[in-house]
Amino acid sequence: MLPSTSTLPLFSPQVVHRRISTTANGVAFAVPSAAAHIGGFLSKKPYTAPSWASELSLVPSHNFTLGQFPTPIHKWNLPNLPKDTEVWIKRDDLAGMELSGNKVRKLEFLMADAVAQGADCVITVGGIQSNHCRATAVAAKYVNLDCHMILVTSRLIVDEDPGLVGNLLVERLLGAHIDLVSKGEFTRIGSVALTNLLKKRLLEKERKPYVIPGGGSNSLGNWGYIEAIREIEQQIQLSGDVQFDDIVVACGSGGTVAGLALGSRLSSLKTKVHGFSVCYGPQYFYDNVQGHIDGLQSGLKSHDIVRIEDAKGLGYAMNTPEELKFVKDIAGATGIVLDPVYSGKAAYGMLKDMSNNPTKWEGRKVLFVHTGGLLGLYDKVDQLSSLAGSWSRMDLEELVHPKMAPVRCSD
Predict the structure, then answer these.
(1) Alpha-carbon span 275 to 338, nearest angstrom
(2) 222 versus 3: which is more confidently predicted?
(3) C-alpha separations of 363 from 82, 86, 97, 246, 359 in Å
(4) What does the alpha-carbon distance between residue 90 and residue 340 come to, in Å, rounded to a whole number?
(5) What confidence score (pLDDT) does residue 18 get?
(6) Which of the listed residues 44, 125, 289, 297 has the most CB atoms within 10 Å of its CB?
(7) 372/18: higher pLDDT
(8) Domain Tryptophan synthase beta chain-like PALP spans what residues (predicted)?
(9) Inter-residue contact 370 to 336 (CB < 8 Å)
(10) How large is the average pLDDT for residues 109-118?
């Protein structure tokens, strides 16, 4: 049986939705975040980069308040850890209901740029159960933009109604415009060419589209997780008694791990960042991260700031029975529900590496970033049905036929 999750917060609940600031002498204090003020949520506000990131290029001028930040950090008592190893978890799955997960951090900057450029709609691309596409559809509606998305699915069902499972339900309720392509077409034509084709058609209709890459991962989107490092840095400062040696995160489009790795290197954290890839191999992501940090003119090398581990298993969005059982076991024991595509694979890969290489992790404090995506579980219902908890009809026999009290005979 796995141990239960500790609910010990890294900072008190009273400041969970507050921005943490410091005085000149470094004393931490809490001030209300933009989202805490009436009218602050969904507002556009000027952005000032952390001092340690101010020399990077493409510093955003504004962002939208779309998420509920800072997200909590608490102890995560996972089983069979190496000696004296602690794992903590940052709950970016709690960033906000329909927007929950890592995508909202990137979209705060991308949507502000779309509005600044006068766009009336956005275009993006992803898999049929893309968390990014769902979050983009929500964020677009929040800022009064239409959303057009290209979703990649199997050749067998590309001409059919995609249904209302998981992320698709939210997207279609919001009225997102969905174009389906097969995996073969996507591989042959490519993401850029497909989005350019859709952009051309919208321009011909006199629309003003703004293109957001898959996962929201580009130089501007990277600022979402550069800013997240500032948030973690402030949470640690307020707590005063926790320091992290490692940050672990799933790696799907590269933007999240690039922002975390770059921010960690430039800030006071100096933590070792591990990206567990859920698609493609490590070299692809080293090159991918290099492209992201080159876009910000960081002057750094990806191999020096991040370690990429292969956790794709059968492939993107495909799971082995062992991976799904792991997701079920962790949920049942700790209350943390991992998604099967990203965080589930990353946590599974992390614990597997800890088991195979315990000395590498012994005595270290690890921060695992839960990037959300829980709606993707609905696409795995058939595979999870045999693992889910049992049920039975409630026995009402005693109410329907109550036992009769013994009858006493009187003289």
Answers:
(1) 16
(2) 222
(3) 8, 7, 35, 11, 9
(4) 18
(5) 45
(6) 289
(7) 372
(8) 65-372
(9) yes
(10) 98
3-class DSSP string for the chain? CCCCCCCCECCCHHHCCEEEEECCCCCEEEEECHHHCCCCCCCEEECCCCHHHCCCCCCCCEEECCCCCCCCEEECCCCCCCCCCEEEEEEHHHCCCCCCCCHHHHHHHHHHHHHHCCCCEEEEEEECCCHHHHHHHHHHHHCCCEEEEEEEECCCCCCCCCCCCCHHHHHHHCCCEEEEEEHHHHHHHCHHHHHHHHHHHHHHCCCCEEECCHHHCCCCCCHHHHHHHHHHHHHHHHHCCCCCCEEEEEECCCHHHHHHHHHHHHCCCCCEEEEEECCCCHHHHHHHHHHHHHHCCCCCCHHHHEEEEECCCCCCCCCCHHHHHHHHHHHHHHCCCCCCCCHHHHHHHHHHHHHHCHHHHCCCEEEEEECCCHHHHHHHHHHHCCCCCCCCCCCCHHHHCCCCCCCCCCC
Tell me the average pLDDT of the chain: 90
Check residue 34 and give its pLDDT: 66
Instruction: Kindly report which listed range (6-20, 315-329, 355-369) carries the lowest average pLDDT score.
Output: 6-20
Pairwise CA distance, residues 343 & 326, whole Å: 11
- Which of 4-8, 123-127, 171-175, 350-354 is predicted with the least confidence, judged by mean pLDDT? 4-8
- Active site amino acids: 130
Return the higher-pLDDT residue of 289 and 399: 289
What residues does each domain of the chain span?
Answer: 22-98+219-380, 104-216
Overall average pLDDT of the 140-164 stretch: 96
Per-residue pLDDT of 234-289, as tens digits, reads 999 999 889 999 999 999 999 999 999 999 999 999 999 999 999 999 999 999 99
CATH architecture of 104-216: 3-Layer(aba) Sandwich (3.40)
pLDDT for residue 363 is more than 60: yes
Structure-block tokens of residue 243: 């320091």
What phi, psi does 195 have (nearest 5°)?
-70, -35
**R_g over Cα of the chain:** 23
d(CA 228, CA 92): 10
Indicate if 104-216 has the same CATH topology as 22-98+219-380.
yes
Q: Which fold has domain 22-98+219-380?
A: Rossmann fold (3.40.50)
